[in-house]
Amino acid sequence: MDIKSAEFVISNTNVDKCPKDLIPEYAFIGRSNVGKSSLINMLVQRKSLAKTSGKPGKTQLINHFKINNSWFLVDLPGYGYAKVSKSVKSKFQKFIVEYFEKRKQLVSAFVLIDVRHSPQKVDVEFMQWLGEHGIPFSIIFTKADKLKPGAIKRNAENYLQKLTEDAWEEAPNHFITSSSSGAGRDDVLNYIENINNE
Ligand code: GDP
Q: Where is the signal peptide (predicted)?
């Protein structure tokens, strides 16, 4: 997919105030520092689109970007706190939960995972929650340039293997990316394009 246009539309914490356009939507989410802003900017080839809302604390907002005038890329707040909580609902901000429960335009989520890490409770719980709510998602492994090819493959395989042991019968769809090298860009964009053209 060629990115012909990428524009910031709106930021908010209220899903009812998200854009009304009935165009396909893809949401990017992950723990803080996983490389989400870098990945979004790499995908759309804009230096700082993921920061252009220009408001302090924008990482705690639902940020809508319209791409090629035909689909929304949504930058969701980073999750994951030291805070111990029994329910997933209180662990993930209420408005994130509401976003996933209510947003009819959402086609798929992308859950970002640092390729160097082994499965962390908060990520696994979040993916489980998505699964229970019937929300399709793929994993995007980030920062692949930090490892050698053999280690990337091993880590990703171990991660998916562990997920299937703990929670899933089948490993989720996944991508391996690096915002530094641009690896995985075509894979993610072609995936989105193919769904949009279906
Ligand atoms: P966010 O908090 O998830 O939006 O993460 P950022 O995109 O701000 O990235 C967090 C840190 O990781 C920054 O220091 C980035 O420079 C670094 N980073 C992000 N993506 C990559 C990557 O693909 N490769 C490398 N080497 N560093 C990355």
A: none
51 lines ligand 1 (CB under 6 A): no
Tokens of 22: 């009935």
**Does the reported pTM lie above 0.90?**
yes
Q: What is the residue with the minimal CA distance to atom 21 of ligand 1?
A: 143
Closest to 43 in 3D by CA, of 24, 68, 23, 16: 68
pLDDT tens track for 148-167: 999 999 999 999 998 888 66
Q: Are 145 and 63 in contact (CB under 8 A)?
A: no
Q: Is 98 exposed, middle or buried (0-12, 13-18, 19+ CB in 10 A)?
A: middle
Task: Report d(CA 100, CA 21) in Å as an integer.
Answer: 17
